[in-house]
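G., the chain you wanted modeled:
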Amino acid sequence: MRERRIAPASMPVSELAVHAACHALERSGLSAADIDCFIVATVTPDFTFPATACIVSAKLGAVGKAAFDIEIACSGFVYGLAIVAGLVRTGIYQRVMLIGAEKLSSITDLSDRNTAILFGDGAGAAIFERSEANSFLGCALGSDGSSPELLYVPAGGTAEPLDFKAIANRRNFLKMQGREVFRQAVNKMVESSIESLAQANLVPEDVAYLIPHQANKRIIDAAAKQLGLPSERVLANIDRYGNTSAASIPILLSEVWEEGRLHDGDVLLFSGFGGGLSWGSVVWRWTAA
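Predicted structure as tokens:
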């Protein structure tokens, strides 16, 4: 990692989300009023409640629209893809905006060498619209909550309420057991990728690009190697942003779109792993606008 972005201490994550949302709306030629539902994937919300998505939709001038958050950490955008597909394909909504937004600097302990160098702030947004084209091809999601201490923030919830002692012991910051997370991340990303491709009657050779969560370059490389994907089909920008949790995939997708690297009919494989522990992969066929 050569660079990371750190938001000002006074900036709530909703501001990052709004910025990404406005960017997506501008590119699409739509207004916030054209969006039927707003979903924000984040583990660093403005408040415990209400949902940050409610605040984002209000700041965008879309009061009255459906809005909710997804709190599944680094898997947030992948889980969100499955949720969006269900909402749109069943006809519940015509258009849904999915935002991944994180201010991980707010929960990162700069004195902890295991985590301080890894995490950054950022947001990305995508708009999904009902179409006759079949884009959502396959999905495999999973979780294992038996060992939350592998990657979590100990204090601040009902299991360990935040108090002076917890703050003194820095229990309000992110904790991670990196070696075990690394091992499980590679295995689960590969397993879920193969399962989601099988649902679509596809194999790794059919994938135009693997767009993985940007947690660790070694995790990405190891998963790609097991899938047999050459480096030119594996996208990464972790060197410039660090790990931005639920924001990493939409940020990467935005950059690839800007570069003109996506073509009509391309098969995209999204895959992520994070706190929960949680993981998932989605196979998506890109449809040019």
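The chain is about 30% helix and 20% strand.

Shout if anything looks off.
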